[in-house]
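User: I've been going back and forth on whether these two constructs are worth ordering. Before I decide, could you fold them both?

Assistant: Sure. I'll take them in the order you sent them. The first construct and its structure tokens:
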Amino acid sequence: MKIALIGYGKMGHMIEQIALSRGHQIVCKIDVNNQQDFDSPEFASADVAIEFTNPTAAYDNYLKAFKHNVKVVSGSTGWMKDHKADVEALTKDGKQTLFWASNFSIGVAIFSAVNRYLAKIMNQFPQYDVELEETHHIHKLDAPSGTAITLAEEIVNDIDRKTSWKKGTTRWDDGHVDGSDDHKPDELLVKSIRHEEVPGIHTIRYDSEADEITITHNAHSRKGFALGAVLAAEYTLNHTGLLTTSDLFKF
């Protein structure tokens, strides 16, 4: 498979290594300094482009790839609020193809399945309140993380006493705190920590007067995300439309 990389930072380098090890070819690498290469023959020759950039650039990158009918796998978060409807229209009936996920880790996919199952159980026990906390490296721009939002939406979907999620505080290594943890009883609080070079920790906590139940996913490195992105590209090669990890991982 011919792969183009959009974003060639730490994640892009790791994706490249894994893709090459699995027998794929990298035909184009696009970063901030060579945006003109979106219109190159090399980019147009790609079967799939893997995009890991930032929330402000992601949607425009999709449009540039779709212009050449190149399928996209993307792990960029933060664009859905403004452009979800546009992307759904672009990918309707398989006209263009985007495989998007807030997190490509196989472990997070399993964790998400456990989260949904646990929420269904805990819906029967209103004495437990639930909150979510995510920790990432200090370079991460968005808070809460896209993965935390996905997990929060799963909980809200399955627990009747929570009607929405609310962004709580973000705590930084230098001691300053953004935001507030004030929330209504029917809101699921999602708190954030930005600490050193942490790849990603997501913790869901159910607490009552009697006891506490906690589940956590702790990424040791970005390697799991990179492998998942390549697996998603392999899946996307033969599928069309708007795809996500629930299509790739059937559990």
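The second construct, handled the same way:
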Amino acid sequence: MRLIALIAAALAAMTLAGCAGRPDGILVPVAETAPGASKVEMLVATTRSAQGATPGEMFTGERGQSVQFADLTISIPPDSARKIGEVQWPSGKIGNPATDFVTLKAEKLVPKEAARRFSARIKRTPHRQVLLFVHGYNTRFEEAVYRFAQIVHDSHAEVQPVLFTWPSRGQLLAYGYDRESANYSRDALESILQILAKDPNVGEISILAHSMGNWVTMEALRQMAIRNKGLAPKIKNVMLASPDVDPDVFRRQLAEIGPKRPPFILFTSQDDAALGLSKRVWGGLPRLGAVDPSKEPYKSEFAAEKLTVVDLTKVKANNSIAHDKFAQSGVVNAIGARLASGQALGDDGASFGETLGQVATGAVSTVGTAASIIVTAPVAIIDPRSREAFGSQFNRLGANASNLLRSGTVEGAIPY
């Protein structure tokens, strides 16, 4: 317990440097947006409980007894007033639509109405594409909603956004609870995927999972493949961003899913401090999202499994935790352009990897240094990167952990 508390405090130290506080109760709809602002509509399926939630919260971090649905519209300020790749969090419950993300609509739905609205929207969507997002650990409901809205907007992808949000308490010291909530939610996520795959109006499904969300995603896909003797052909892309998953477990999950699967795109970063700390929690076992894909056994295994691996180690992160590089503009723009073309991300994997590298290289002013790309379908290594261990960073942060715990600031960190 002492080690977990130390890690949580160190993590708080990294994230507090870039965040003044967490948003709270921000889903209270406002009446108007601002000139030049954009809107993102999304449908939500959740295993969270609504009991005890405030109107601005909608759903808590506790576990619900059944899947519930919601319809939300988020206003995003003009691009000239924001940094692309980031969420402009309101400082209070009601933000300024000219400078902040704000909520325009937040409505709970019964399943029948959710299905009706989804059907109407997917028919208007090019290629009838669904983008399903599964968030990570330490994420409140409203944080998942705003992050997904940012990803959809910044990608410029013409897709029907569907958020699957599981019961994370949004607390750094609730890692164990969140992990069990992810397990609790895998049947529900599989059920949503089965419904989408069987819907005749759906043409394609792309999945984007982040952090611990990769665990529930891989488990749901594994169950689906076992149940149906393979994954649904409509699932065209599976994007695994910063997966907080044991590589050995991932191998078994892939084996159960089988070789007849859609392209899997793995986004890694060796400077991901959150996964470095997660490694400590799991007894020194590496996390999939922080491995070096140019080293064995990963290089050969990824190639054998025909995975496309994009190493973002050299992309400058928007914050010191470096756990959400996938959400930054260069990466989401490249993904969005690929989805808009109707081409699976893993088709001609080397070309896609080079595209991501070029996008990052050309966006130094917003993203930072060029991305290192390792694409293993087929294997190609572009711009071999320098390797930096961040153990010394952990040691420095750990030295201050006891002060943080005494100050009571551990709960103030942004989600990951």
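Notes on the second construct follow. The two ends are 21 Å apart (CA to CA). Residues 175-198 form the longest helix (24 residues).
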